Amino acid sequence: MRNLSGLTALVTGGSKGIGYGIAAAMLQQGMSVAITSRSALAAEEAASNLRKIGKGNIIGLKADVRDFEEVKAAVQKTVDAFGGLDVLIANAGVGKFGSIEDISVEDWHATIETNLTGVFYSIKASVDELKKSQGYFITISSLAGTNFFAGGSAYNASKFGLTGFTQAVMLDLRQSGVKVSTIMPGSVATYFNDHVPNDADSWKIQIEDIGELVIDLLAMNPRTLPSKIEVRPSMPPK
Fold it and tell me: GO annotations under biological process (predicted)?
């Protein structure tokens, strides 16, 4: 199993939820991690809490993935702080749901620009550094990236697009030594869509489970690439 200590990572949308769980798992391996949030305060508060883990190094950065210049700045700050970039986790995402008759133009753009364009910006700003390190690019898609549902026109479009985008990037970068995977979770106990995690979420995937999965991918022998991973709760309510 590959030793991950000393590697550097950037996690978009890392101040809570899945991104936070991934950052925690990487810090426990001795990695150096930068997390982003649209809120500078949220990024720094999360980094302060993650720092208590006692392993690795962590910084919090303000960056809205919908703004290419902010993403480029976050990548540069990560490189300046840690000396390079080995792992990019494109996790930042939003969920806007509603019938096509009801969903607003603003919600459509917020969903596509965050969940899809934001990932394009993230890898575009990072690709040179990842090629230098022969690193790893992981996107957090969703089972909604292959399964459509009523009220999901914007979200389905963004995640179907993200799944296809990631697989195409995998083919683009594999000969450069950059590994690319997409993780497609089902129900996860997070703050997504204004939900507050609670005891009733015990059947769901937990954020530490996704963190463990990311560690498994990073530690795998580089000759092998799990390019698309679907993840489900093992026993959802009947």
Answer: monocarboxylic acid metabolic process
